[in-house]
Design goal:
Helix content: 55-70%
CATH architecture of one domain: Orthogonal Bundle
Radius of gyration: 22 Å
Structural class: mainly alpha
Number of helices: 5
Order of helices and strands: HHHHH
Length: 120
């Protein structure tokens, strides 16, 4: 009987500690959008890339195709840095190619900014 009480107390202590740890952990949140400035001439090139290259897999209206939709609602909840990393490094096991080498991190962040705004 003593073992049963000790086991219950240990379980209760473990549960209480778990609640305390969980309540003191910072909440996960999506980081704020990255604001990036790109020269106007390069912006035109990136918009073309977005329409032609991204559009070839994600749909010309970015509603999805071979790749998932890239509309603001579909991107909600996804951190900017994750999206930038996906653009630069691609996605292993999918048709998403890496663009590192053709795009800088700032340019990939600018593309994410445009996608979040729903820019045509």
């Amino acid at each position: 009987m003593t073992t049963s009480i000790a086991a219950r107390r240990l379980s209760l202590l473990f549960a209480a500690a778990s609640v305390l740890i969980a309540s003191s952990a910072p909440a996960l949140s999506v980081e704020p959008s990255i604001e990036v400035s790109i020269a106007p001439g390069r912006q035109a090139q990136l918009k073309y890339l977005l329409a032609q290259d991204c559009g070839s897999c994600h749909g010309m209206t970015r509603k999805g195709g071979l790749g998932p939709a890239l509309l603001p609602d579909n991107l909600a909840g996804k951190p900017d840095q994750l999206l930038v990393a996906t653009i630069l490094d691609g996605r292993t096991g999918t048709a998403m190619p890496p663009w590192r080498g053709q795009l800088t991190e700032a340019e990939a962040a600018w593309l994410v900014q445009q996608l979040r705004r729903g820019v045509e």
